[in-house]
Amino acid sequence: MKCPFCGDPSTQVTDTRENEDGDIVRRRRRCVKCDKRFTTYERIDLKMPHIVKRNGTRVEFDRNKLGASMTLALRKRPVALEDIEAAAARIEGKLLAMGEREIPSETVGELVMRELKKLDKVAYVRYASVYRNFEDVHNFSEAIREVSRGRGRPSKSS
Hints:
The chain is α+β, with helices and mostly antiparallel strands and 158 residues long. The chain has helices spanning 63-73, 81-98, 105-119, 121-131, 137-149; strands at 11-18, 24-31, 37-43, 50-52, 58-60, 102-104. The protein folds into two domains: 11-43; 50-149. It contains five helices and six strands. Helix 2 packs antiparallel against helix 3 (105-119), helix 3 (105-119) runs antiparallel to helix 4 and helix 4 (121-131) packs across helix 5.
């Protein structure tokens, strides 16, 4: 770490402390050359992958957008806000764990559907109807049969 006063690269750490959450480290440093003191902060800098939409455009991952789409599907359903936030956090964690720079939007959609299926079957069907672009009542019936049986995902076409 260079000294911000004289630019010398020789500094010593005199004190190290973590914040209450343990996600930020504060370090007091002293420049060996000019003897001035300064503080640095370390925090984790995780980069979320970019989402590649169906049309090929790339957008930054937006946790607010993820939460909003889940909340919309869960509108007027008996699911606690904490459960929605926990599900969104699990999705975000899975996206980070993939270690990819870009992830197809279909992957995010599938993760959302898995979480919604656990939270509320009605919300799952609501989300699936938009995500899978249901075109007729048969698609809805098929999705309802799938969640009733507790099996995999409904198919895209009739």
